Amino acid sequence: MATIAPPAIARILLCFFVLARVCASTGSQPSVDDGQNFFDVVEYGAVGDGRTDDTKAFKKAWTDACKSSVSMPIMHVPHNKTCLLQPLVLRGPCNSQNLTIQIDGTLVASGDPSAWKCDKKDCRHWIMISDVDGLSGLVIDKCNEVRLSELTFKDSPQMHIAIEGSTRVTAANLTITSPGHSPNTDGIHIQRSQHVLVRDCYIGTGDDCISIGQGSAHLDISGISCGPGHGVSIGSLGKHGSRETVEDVHVRDVHFVGTSNGVRIKTWQGGKGYARDIVFERITVTNSSHPIIIDQFYCDHEHCKNQTSAVQISNVTYSQVNGTSHAKAAVELACSETHPCRDILMKDITLNLTVKGKETTSHCSNVRGRRNSNIFPNISCLEEDEDL
């Protein structure tokens, strides 16, 4: 069962978040009053027992809050209410640029996909928020000036939070969890979005803690605890020969625990575009496999054909990456022969093997760059530069 349970009050300004609790009861529906600024989902018929379908009531409360002419409408999900919601889309634009959804309760989806009441085209996401400026939700789509904070996301059927086609989004103080064996349950996925800030989050999932896709730029990610999961990944980029780009990404102060990867860049053979101007710094790993990895031969199935074109990876810095690797090869840089990775910088890196008495190794091919002397394991393909 997918759950959203904020620890206190979740406020999402200049847009709206998701989920309230709505139940198809025969209670009276509140009238829309231009002066009303508080839209409690219980007044719209929400039951909140975790079993009754509250989707219809939730939609009604959202519609009235979105249409309200007051300056700061508030849609409210009461404390001690658990709302069962079907897949739904909350659409704008809304009259107010300062709509707040205050979630004091819990939002759940059926754990049985066959029980979801939706058209096939609408079943890809549980809750989608679209065409609203200043929003937060499971899917933040084409929105601006968004803040999402102090929420807990648990056991989403797929991605927990997707930020798509949006600008100036902040996600802070979030807790996102799902079993380590659950597929495709990325914690936060970002694509076609710019100026995104993610900070001070605990994420443990069955896929990437944070994944960064096509069209992302000017991202600042910090203060993340990741594990279990697949680490922080840029890509995959360039599938089916497409041109895809990612640039200006800063990842710092991240702690990986028991993850299958640490910081990763992955691209498909045959792709075009670039991944550039990327910084990974102050990274700590504890018993994680592949703490540092660039893979320009990514393939999620067997028999991917060899191709010469590749996404160009350049100007990537790794600084102060320390800890223990579960795998012997702690650093793996596998770049394209025709489009080598360029301007790769490494400084102050110490990655020891979790098992005492053995040493980590590195693998490096088609890489151009520099390193300082404080590097373990040694990365022989990088030129030593004491000025770093």
TrEMBL record:
Highest rank taxon of the organism: Eukaryota
GO molecular function terms noted in the UniProt entry: polygalacturonase activity
Entry keyword annotation includes Hydrolase: yes
Localization per record: Secreted, Cell wall
Pfam families per record: Glyco_hydro_28
Signal peptide range: 1-24
Primary site of residence: secreted
InterPro entries in alphabetical order: Glyco_hydro_28, PbH1, Pectin_lyas_fold, Pectin_lyase_fold/virulence
GO BP field: carbohydrate metabolic process; cell wall organization
Family per record: Belongs to the glycosyl hydrolase 28 family.
Name of protein: Pectate lyase superfamily protein domain-containing protein
Native source species: Eucalyptus grandis
Species classification: Eukaryota, Viridiplantae, Streptophyta, Embryophyta, Tracheophyta
